[in-house]
Amino acid sequence: MTVQHKMIEARPAPGNTVGPIAWLRINLFSGPVNTVFTLLGLYLLYVLLTPTIQWAFINADWVGTSRDDCSREGACWVFVNARLTQFIYGLYPRTELWRVNIVFATFAVLIAWLAIPRLPLKRWVALATLVAFPVFAFFLLYGGYFGLRVVETHRWGGLMLTLILAVVGMVAALPIGILLALGRRSQMPIVKSFCVVFIEFWRGVPLITILFMASVMLPLFLPTGVSVDRLVRALIGITLFQSAYMAEVIRGGLQAIPRGQEEAAAALGMGYWMRMGLIVLPQALKMMIPGIVNTFISLFKDTTLVMIIGLFDLLGIVQAALSDSRWLGFALEGYVFAAFMFWIFCFSMSRYSQYLERKLHTGHKR
Amino acid sequence: MRDNKNKWLLVTSAAVLALGTASLASANTLQNTIQRGAVQCGVSDGLPGFSAPDDQGEWQGLDVDVCRAVAAAVFGDADAVRYISLNAVERFTALQSGEVDVLSRNTTWTTTRDTTLGLNFTGVTFYDGIGFMINRDLGVSSALDLDGAAICVQSGTTTELNVADYFRANGMEFDPIVFDTSEQTVGGYEAGRCDVLTSDTSQLAALRIQLSDPDQSVILPEIISKEPLGPVVRQGDDQWFNIVKWSLFAMLNAEEMGITQENVDEMRNSDDPDIARLLGQDGNYGEGMGLDANWAYNIISQVGNYGESFERNVGMGSPLQIERGINALWTNGGIQYAPPIR
């Protein structure tokens, strides 16, 4: 009889259950059916990816200044390269681009500050982002003060315009949406019916119709000489539309909070705004993150609709560039670029929302 | 109470009436433009050779040059233009509502548009119409040689009907190959499904560049339908109407007299009375429009004459390579003709 005085060393797992080969066997080749599907999938990937990579990278032209530098065998990224400034800044005067850059940089810093958990003074930075930054951004972009040249909004465009439309839409729609959602649940008949009518009206009309009304019909109703800037019209249209959607997302979240929460808060002697602001909304908003981000992402993509009212957002400026007679016939490259830019932004929003969900996860989810 | 109600009714209906007529009775466009410091010009949201932003973000094109000419005439500065890109649906509303002062957006001059929309067409910048593109190797030089040809055409357009009319009128036969979109039409032509591709000439030129070998195809000189494109202004402001009309005429007259962007300064000393009148050296012909005597000089020195603008934007100096054809001056066999300045 042997007596072991030490614990037996843990032996490595059998070779056929760990490592990449085992992973392949378990996940991809676990049976004849799966093996067939795996091979089929690989073949499809090969068939689809080879020409794509050939077109986009191997046969592509990267350097040059005009269409003559394109061999036409693959993608001609020269076009995107030559137009990159325009795709990002629209028709903003070349000498004034630093103003846009400052606004971009400030915005990035503020967002990063809010997104990185360790940094202090969150509340003040948030306030600055929501209140001071838009004012600062407007004066810097539009100019007319402090010796800055006025750059009218019809010269704004590209990614810059897409971001302006999306950010203003998001920032303005969220508070309006919260108020509308609270109003719709209110006991007060006038407030309630106003909110219901507002939400149902704006939600019942396609965004494209709203933009069209704002751009085509509105000027006819205004007295001659009075004209509201097109961008402002589009912004108001988008905000109203988006806040109606937001209101319904938020109302959904509010309904998920048990009644007891509000009653308990009332029992502690809290007034309406305290009950909502301290008890109900913090719990509800947290649960609504996927819904809210969903709405934001769809808004970000909806901004392309402003193209039909003659504003050059990212997609619009790409299309305008496609009709330059010096660059005819590079539609595919232009659209791929636009799609890629949109994907970057939407994907980042989606990742950030997942991060937020994890961070705010306090045991609601099961 | 009742009186009050009636009063409101009156005010409202007056307001509605005022709105209805606002577009007709719109105030002095020239004054508004000068106050604003820029001509608001409605252009297309991108049409090759007519209006599109270039690599530098500056608008270029034949339609754009009209805007620049008007700005040069009014301000002496061709860059004093605010471009507003409009799509086909909103272009007339934008003009009626005063959002733009001039609409220069490849708009075809037709009776309905001229007479029922409260608008005035000021002239023709480009005589467009249906043309034919054909493989150079076929050696065809006139549309009348196309008897029996297979023709690629986009379905559902007036092009199809006009081509049929033209062939019937000339006692010829053709074999239509119909496609749904313009890309497919080009694809069909490139694949050799047809000998001829037909569309509006301005469109043909843009399609031609997208072929794998553009030089292999030529556009025949014949244009078989009438699509006169020109700038449009609101009705009811004759002064502004005159300014836009004569800005274009000045460019045409300049070409006829051989005045170009380069030689305009020398030409100012010319003894030719026609040239002296145009360039403001003999009398002030801008006065009647509320402009100064240099109005035409400013247009020519900053924008160029009509021929220069044509060549630069859609003609041989551009990738589109559209022949002057009927857009040549009347002295060169075309139909571009401007009344004299005197």
From TrEMBL, chain A:
Name listed for the protein in its UniProt record: Amino acid ABC transporter permease
Localization per Swiss-Prot or TrEMBL: Cell inner membrane; Cell membrane
Membrane topology recorded in Swiss-Prot or TrEMBL: Multi-pass membrane protein
Family: Belongs to the binding-protein-dependent transport system permease family. HisMQ subfamily.
InterPro entries found in the cross-reference section: AA_ABC_transptr_permease_3TM (IPR010065), ArtM/GltK/GlnP/TcyL/YhdX-like (IPR043429), MetI-like (IPR000515), MetI-like_sf (IPR035906)
Primary location class: membrane
Alphabetical keyword list: Amino-acid transport, Cell membrane, Membrane, Transmembrane, Transmembrane helix, Transport
Species in which this protein is naturally found: Billgrantia desiderata
A molecular function (GO) term: transmembrane transporter activity
Keyword Ribosomal protein: no
Ranges of residues in domain ABC transmembrane type-1: 159-353
GO biological process, one term: amino acid transport
Lineage: Bacteria, Pseudomonadati, Pseudomonadota, Gammaproteobacteria, Oceanospirillales
Residues spanning the membrane: 35-58, 97-117, 124-146, 158-182, 194-222, 272-293, 305-322, 328-349
GO cellular component: ATP-binding cassette (ABC) transporter complex
